[in-house]
C-alpha cells in the first residue's frame, strides 16, 4: 500500500512537471510571436507617421526610396508588369533597358532574389485586388524584421532557460533601434532581407550546440540551420563574410575542445553545401569560390583528415594536435591565394581594395574608393554610439556578462589543458557557465563582431543585436549569477537561492526602469506626425514623364539616376552600384573642373541625351573638407595643389556644374537648358553642336 502511494505521488509529480513545462513552452512561444508581431506593427506605424504613406500619390511614395533602394524596388515593379514570371526573370537576367550601352544580369549583379520571391508571393497569393504592390513589398520586409526579433527572443530564451530574457532582449533591441537596424533609412536594402534569416540560423545553431538535447530536437535544429544558412547566402552578396566570422568562432570553440567535434563539422558541411548550391543558382558566382569561408572550411576538413590518418599516440599525431590552429591558418591562406590566382573574379575586388586603403596598406586617388572612405558608416564609431548604449543600461550589463563568461571559459580551458574532462551535464550548483558550448560560441562570436564594429560603425548593425541578446541572457541566467557567487564564496546566504532571486529581480528592475524612461518616448514618436515632402524632385519626375522622349537617356549622380529609373522608367547612364567601376565613372566628372568639350565627349560616349545637375552637390558645404564630392573629384583628376601644408584646387577650367549655369560659350554650344527648379537643372545634350558665341 505504501508502494502504491509512492507510485501515485511520483506519477502526480511527473504529470505536474510535464504540464508546467508545456505551459512554460506555450506562454514563451506566445510571447516570442507576439513580440515579433508587435515590432512589425510598430515599424509599419512609424513608417506611416514618417512619410504619410497612405495619403501620398504613387510618385510621391516612390520618391521615399533613395539610391540603391530605388533600384531594388524598380526591378520589383518590372517583374509585376511582365506578362509572366518567366518572362520577367529573363528580362532581368538579360537587362538592356536600364543602363545605356550595357546589358547586365541584374539578378546576379544586384542579388535580386528577394524581389523574385516578393513578386511570386504577390501574384500567387492573389493580392493584386487586395493590396497595392508597394504595401505588400514593405509589409514583407517589416514582417521579416518581426521574425528577426522573434529569433533573438528565442536565442536568449534557449540560453537562459527563461523567456523573461527574450522580453528584455526585445526591449533593448527596440530602444536602441538607431544602432540595431537600418530599416528606418533603407527598407529594401539586402541586409534587411538577409539578417532575419541569419538570426534564425543563430537561434537554431544555439540549440544544436547544446549538450542535453534529444534526438528529434537536434534534427529539427540541424534542418533549420541548413535551410536558414542557404537562404541567408542567397539574400545578401556579403553573407559569406559574416558566415566566415561564424566559422572562425566555431573553429576556436572546437580547438579548445569545448564542443562536440562531430556537431561542429556537420555545420562545416552545411557551409560547403550552401556555397556549392549558391554558386550554381547564382549564375556560377565566382565570389563564393574565392571567399575566405570556403578556404577555411576546406582547410578544416583537410586538417581533420590528416589527424585521422595518423595513429593516435604517435609523435606526429601529438605534434599535429598541438599545431592544429597554425596548420589550419596556413592551409586557409594558401588555399585562398591559389583560388584567387586560378579563379577569375571581379565581384569583390572593390572590397579588398577598400580594406587595403582603410588599413593604410595602400593609397588611392580613385573617386569611388575615397568617397566610400568618407562615409560615416565606414568610420570608427563615435562617442555618441557608446553613450546611447550606456544610457539604455545595455553596455554596462553586456560588459559585466562578458567578463564573467570570459573568466569562466578561461577556467574551463585551463582545466582542459590539465587533462580534466568536461562534465556531461552542468548543474546549477556547479557554477560553470563556461562549460556550455552554446555560451562559449556566443561569447567568441560577439567579441569578433565587436572588433569589427570598433573599426567600422556600419558593422554595429551586426553586433548590437547580439549584444542585446547576450546581456539579456546573462542577467536572467541563474547559472551566471551562480558562477559569480562561486568565485565570491558566499556563505551568509545560500548561493543557489540568491542566484534564482537575482535572475528574476534584476531583469524585472531593468524592465521597469526601461519602461518608465523609454516607453513614453516611443509612444510620442508614434504619435508625432512627421512630414517628408520633396516638391522639387516630384516636379522633376513629372516633367521627365511628360516632356522627355521615350528613348531619352539621363545622366547625373548615381543616386538620382536610381530614383529617375524607378519613378519614370527612363533609361539612365549609371546606377549606385559600387562594385562596378565602369558605371560609377560614367558621370562622376560632371561636378569636376573639366572643360565643356571633355564632359560632352564623356556623356555622348554613353549615348546620354539629358544631363541633370543637382544644386545640393554642386554647392555642397560639407562638415569635413576633403570629403565633398567636388573635393574628391579634384583629387581624382589631379587638380589639387599643396602649398605650405594647405591644399588648393586648381585647374584652368572652372567647375563644370557652376560654369554651365552661366549660359555662355562654349557651354551653350554643347548643352541647352530645358528645365530647372530650386534643386535641379536639366540640360539637353545637343546632337548638332553650334559654335556661335
TrEMBL record:
Residue spans crossing the bilayer: 25-46, 157-175, 241-259, 279-302, 323-343, 395-418, 462-484, 496-515
Topology of this chain in the membrane: Multi-pass membrane protein
Keyword field contains S-adenosyl-L-methionine: no
Pfam families registered for this protein in UniProt: Dpy19 (PF10034)
Source superkingdom: Eukaryota
CDD domains in the cross-refs: Dpy19L4
Entry GO terms, CC: nuclear inner membrane
Subcellular location: Membrane
Main location: membrane
Coiled coil: none
Key words of the record: Glycosyltransferase, Membrane, Transferase, Transmembrane, Transmembrane helix
Single annotated GO MF: mannosyltransferase activity
Entry's family note: Belongs to the dpy-19 family.
The name this protein goes by in its record: Dpy-19 like 4
Organism encoding this protein: Strix occidentalis caurina
Amino acid at each position: 500500500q505504501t508502494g502504491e502511494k509512492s507510485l501515485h505521488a511520483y506519477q502526480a509529480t511527473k504529470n505536474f512537471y510535464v504540464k508546467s513545462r508545456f505551459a512554460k513552452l506555450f506562454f514563451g512561444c506566445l510571447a516570442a510571436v507576439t513580440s515579433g508581431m508587435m515590432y512589425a506593427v510598430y515599424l509599419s506605424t512609424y513608417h506611416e507617421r514618417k512619410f504619410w504613406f497612405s495619403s501620398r500619390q504613387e510618385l510621391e511614395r516612390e520618391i521615399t526610396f533613395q539610391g540603391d533602394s530605388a533600384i531594388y524596388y524598380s526591378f520589383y515593379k518590372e517583374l509585376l508588369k511582365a506578362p509572366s514570371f518567366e518572362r520577367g526573370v529573363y528580362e532581368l537576367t538579360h537587362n538592356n533597358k536600364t543602363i545605356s550601352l550595357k546589358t547586365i544580369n541584374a539578378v546576379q549583379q544586384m542579388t535580386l532574389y528577394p524581389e523574385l520571391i516578393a513578386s511570386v508571393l504577390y501574384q500567387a497569393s492573389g493580392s493584386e485586388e487586395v493590396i497595392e504592390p508597394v504595401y505588400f513589398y514593405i509589409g514583407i520586409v517589416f514582417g521579416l524584421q518581426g521574425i528577426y526579433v522573434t529569433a533573438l527572443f528565442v536565442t536568449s530564451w534557449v540560453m537562459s532557460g527563461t523567456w523573461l530574457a527574450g522580453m528584455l532582449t526585445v526591449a533593448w533591441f527596440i530602444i536602441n533601434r538607431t544602432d540595431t537596424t537600418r530599416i528606418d533609412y533603407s527598407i529594401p536594402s539586402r541586409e534587411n532581407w538577409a539578417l532575419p534569416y541569419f538570426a534564425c540560423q543563430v537561434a537554431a545553431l544555439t540549440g544544436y550546440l547544446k549538450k542535453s538535447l534529444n534526438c528529434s530536437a537536434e534534427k529539427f535544429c540541424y534542418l533549420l540551420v541548413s535551410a536558414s544558412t542557404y537562404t541567408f547566402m542567397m539574400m545578401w552578396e556579403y553573407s559569406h563574410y559574416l558566415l566566415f566570422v561564424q566559422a572562425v568562432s566555431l573553429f576556436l570553440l572546437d580547438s579548445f575542445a569545448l564542443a562536440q567535434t562531430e556537431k561542429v563539422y556537420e555545420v562545416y558541411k552545411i557551409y560547403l553545401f550552401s556555397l556549392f548550391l549558391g554558386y550554381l543558382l547564382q549564375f556560377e558566382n565566382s565570389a563564393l569560390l574565392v571567399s575566405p569561408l570556403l578556404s577555411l572550411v576546406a582547410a578544416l576538413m583537410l586538417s581533420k583528415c590528416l589527424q585521422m590518418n595518423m595513429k593516435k599516440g604517435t609523435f606526429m599525431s601529438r605534434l599535429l594536435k598541438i599545431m592544429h590552429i597554425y596548420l589550419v591558418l596556413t592551409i586557409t591562406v594558401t588555399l585562398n591565394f591559389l583560388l584567387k590566382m586560378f579563379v577569375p573574379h571581379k565581384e569583390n575586388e572593390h572590397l579588398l581594395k577598400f580594406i587595403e586603403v582603410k588599413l593604410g596598406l595602400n593609397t588611392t586617388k580613385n573617386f569611388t574608393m575615397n568617397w566610400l572612405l568618407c562615409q560615416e558608416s565606414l568610420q570608427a564609431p563615435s562617442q555618441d554610439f557608446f553613450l546611447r548604449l550606456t544610457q539604455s543600461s545595455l553596455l554596462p550589463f553586456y560588459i559585466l556578462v562578458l567578463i564573467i563568461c570570459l573568466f569562466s571559459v578561461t577556467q574551463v580551458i585551463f582545466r582542459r589543458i590539465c587533462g580534466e574532462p568536461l562534465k556531461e551535464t552542468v548543474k546549477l550548483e556547479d557554477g560553470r557557465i563556461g562549460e556550455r558550448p552554446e555560451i562559449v560560441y556566443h561569447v567568441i562570436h560577439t567579441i569578433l563582431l565587436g572588433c569589427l564594429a570598433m573599426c567600422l560603425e556600419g558593422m554595429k548593425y551586426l553586433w548590437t543585436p547580439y549584444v542585446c541578446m547576450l546581456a539579456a541572457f546573462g542577467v536572467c541566467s541563474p547559472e551566471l549569477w551562480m558562477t559569480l557567487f562561486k568565485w565570491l564564496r558566499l556563505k551568509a546566504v545560500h548561493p543557489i537561492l540568491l542566484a534564482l532571486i537575482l535572475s528574476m529581480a534584476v531583469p524585472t528592475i531593468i524592465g521597469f526602469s526601461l519602461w518608465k524612461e523609454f516607453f513614453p518616448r516611443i509612444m510620442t514618436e508614434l504619435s508625432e506626425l512627421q512630414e517628408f515632402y520633396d516638391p522639387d524632385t516630384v516636379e522633376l519626375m513629372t516633367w521627365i514623364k511628360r516632356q522627355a522622349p521615350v528613348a531619352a537617356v539621363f545622366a547625373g549622380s548615381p543616386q538620382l539616376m536610381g530614383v529617375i529609373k524607378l519613378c519614370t522608367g527612363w533609361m539612365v547612364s549609371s546606377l549606385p552600384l559600387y562594385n562596378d567601376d565602369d558605371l560609377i565613372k560614367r558621370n562622376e566628372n560632371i561636378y569636376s573642373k573639366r572643360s565643356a568639350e571633355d564632359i560632352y565627349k564623356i556623356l555622348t560616349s554613353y549615348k546620354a541625351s539629358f544631363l541633370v545637375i543637382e544644386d545640393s552637390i554642386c554647392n555642397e558645404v560639407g562638415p569635413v573638407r576633403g570629403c565633398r564630392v567636388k573635393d574628391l573629384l579634384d583629387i581624382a583628376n589631379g587638380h589639387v595643389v599643396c602649398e605650405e601644408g594647405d591644399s588648393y584646387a586648381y585647374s584652368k577650367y572652372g567647375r563644370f556644374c557652376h560654369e554651365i549655369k552661366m549660359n555662355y560659350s562654349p557651354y551653350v554650344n554643347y548643352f541647352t537648358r530645358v528645365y530647372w527648379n530650386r534643386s535641379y537643372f536639366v540640360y539637353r545634350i545637343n546632337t548638332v553642336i553650334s559654335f556661335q558665341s
